[in-house]
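Hi L.,

You mentioned the student needs an example of a multi-chain input paired with its predicted structure. This one should do, with 292 residues in total across all chains.
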Amino acid sequence: MDIAVSDLLESDRRQRSSHSVMSRRADGLSDEQLMTNLDEPQVEVALSKLYDRYSRTVYGVGLNILGDRATAEELVQDVFLKMWRSSRTFDASRGSFSTWLYRVTRSAAIDLYRKRAHKVHPVPNGELHVAAARDFSEDPQKMVDESWLSWRVSRALEVLDAPHREVIELAYFGGLSQREISKRSGMPLGTVKSRTKSAFKRLRGELALEDTLQEAIR
Amino acid sequence: MRCAEIHPNQAAFALGGLEPEEAAEVRSHLAPCLSCWKEFEELESVYCALQVASPPQPLPTSRSCLPAPRTSPT
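Structure written out for the whole complex:
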């Protein structure tokens, strides 16, 4: 496996164990409950928890749409500022917080995408070029569809427990075979295989649940 | 190979994470076995969904969008 990916997975595992997973379990507050706290004195705590839960997803979707890390970081800043300032427009009876935040993210990403599309700059061979954002100009619906699916998959991965998420990250994003995961983790090969299948089924369940929720909202 | 022996390998097969000989066994079982094929299709749909996901990301480093203590939106 590529060293950088391996390091990233390890760093991500440490961060998750020390931040988001523990905070979710320790405080027990739903996203929607935290949103109601944004008008109250504990706003910093509520925002910080929502940031821990969602900033990776916003960043990942931003990276897909916008194509570079700096602009994806800018998107994260924009989205969480908008979330804070627009928190009163969130109505839990109309849909989940995740769906609402996805819409905020998509709108902010489109704004940044348009700004970037107008930024042209010279490159060494003398031609003008629009920097690395993907070109959705001929099929904007594709951007909407892909970003929504990317959001849902990211959220489904976030709510997997650590052992199941780890096998998916190593197998899919790290490109390791089941045997390599077994060697690396010390887990018996049969456990790796059953855990991979179980993780897939859980992901499928989460994605199907989102479909059902979306149907309910429409 | 029986269905029970194929089941644990289905997700790994969808991921392309099996050794070549194991993958060949799963492939030859799936073609004629409708129930295993249906389950494999469900698992493969997860693999397809993963293709639009971003690799795991560390938490973005800057938290400057978060409020300093005791401030409120304007």
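You could point out the following to them. The mean pLDDT of chain B is 84. Chain B is about 50% helix and 0% strand.

Best wishes,
N.
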